[in-house]
Design goal:
By secondary structure, this protein is of the alpha/beta class. Helix content is 40%, strand content 15%. The longest helix is centred in the C-terminal third of the chain and has 21 residues, at 291-311.
């Protein structure tokens, strides 16, 4: 897998508490001496460091996960496009907290950048909820044309004033249901299953329309909830199912990709407003230019994780009639369709 760039310091957290590492990296824990004890070299290094502002980026997936690889490409671009005036340290593996906590830090201005899923952002912009609508996109091409086009950009703009600034989207494929109880091939098999969802009314409505019970919960809590039987299942894409180890405790994965919510790279509005216009453009360009790298890594890990769970003996259940699933979630369109009608039209063009 990918080698670490020297600039992208992977930070191991001691005791889970982090002292702010932002601002003009005043000390960096170096205490004026480098590893050889050469004070002269160290003074030079400090001088050039003084011109570089270090920012933190929160990521809840592990190193080598496609979003983390995307973040690293973004960080490299930022460093390059700002001539080394900004460097970004990627804190992967949820070191800075669950997505809701990270968003709060961005709003408070105590964290500069994060990669999160679109779902937790719906709390700050209702409009973003459109991306949760089941079976919204015809295919990946339609989805990405719109996400990286005007509709996607306008949707990110709806975050204005929330303390957050959306920079770009990353791939998160399709979400499907998985559980520990039984093979599910039609919506009627979902009856009574306790399914974890991300915290959103729309996510709850979808699961209920399918006859199951919805339990909102943070991502980091899902593994043990599955293991202890607090929930019977959850829903996610292959890479998350695999890398979170949910596949170890929920063996039945239903191949009914029902939702294509993307990931989003976001910045703190507080931090953003302190950037010059030129730097804002550099950050935006850097984010856009990292999308291809992320999507390539996404395609690879999707395949890899699919193979790995098959090899592990998990059961992947083909769905004979996807139309049945589409019909079953129709009530969600009755309930939320009007609210999102304009956006739905734009994204389905
Ligand atoms: C993943 C996503 C995570 C998190 C998770 C979840 O697909 O990449 O950021 O949102 O889903 O279900 O909470």
């Amino acid at each position: 897998m990918k080698k670490m760039n020297w600039r992208l310091v992977s930070v191991a957290l001691l005791g889970g508490t982090l002292l702010a590492a932002c601002g003009n990296d005043e000390d960096g824990g170096n205490d004026g001496l480098n590893g050889n004890g050469n004070e002269e070299e160290s003074a030079e290094a400090e001088e050039s460091d003084a011109d570089t502002t270090t920012l933190r980026l929160a990521e809840n997936h592990p190193d080598d996960y496609p979003t983390t690889i995307g973040n690293e490409a973004f960080a490299e671009n930022v460093y390059e496009y700002t001539d080394g005036r900004y460097e970004i340290e990627v804190y992967a593996g949820g070191q800075l907290g669950e997505e809701s906590e990270v968003i709060e830090q961005l709003q408070l201005g105590s964290l500069e950048i994060a990669r999160v899923n679109s779902v937790p952002l719906t709390e700050f912009s209702d409009d973003i909820g459109v991306l949760l609508m089941p079976f919204l996109f015809e295919d990946e091409e339609q989805k990405w044309d719109h996400l990286l086009g005007d509709a996607g950009e306008d949707l990110l703009d709806t975050l204005a004033g929330s303390g957050l600034v959306g920079l770009t989207y990353y791939d998160s494929g399709e979400r499907s249901f998985y559980n520990s109880e039984r093979p599910v091939s039609s919506p009627s098999d979902m009856e009574g299953l306790q399914i974890r969802v991300q915290s959103s009314d729309l996510a709850i409505a979808i699961v209920e329309a399918l006859g199951a019970e919805a339990t909102p919960m943070e991502y980091g809590e899902v593994y043990s909830a599955l293991q202890t039987g607090v929930i019977d299942g959850a829903e996610n894409n292959f890479p998350s199912y695999y890398t979170s180890n949910h596949y170890e405790v929920a063996e039945y994965f239903t191949l009914a990709g029902y939702q294509g919510v993307p990931e989003v790279v976001i910045a703190s509005e507080d931090f953003w407003q302190d950037l010059s216009e030129e730097d804002q453009e550099a950050f935006e360009q850097a984010a856009r230019d990292s999308v291809d790298v992320q999507r390539e890594a996404w395609a690879e890990l999707t395949e890899e994780s699919r193979e790995a769970v098959i090899e592990n003996g998990n059961e992947l259940i083909e769905v004979d009639d996807l139309g049945e699933w589409q019909d079953a979630v129709e009530p969600v369109y009755d309930e939320f369709g009007d609210e999102y009608s304009e956006w739905i039209e734009r994204f389905q063009q």
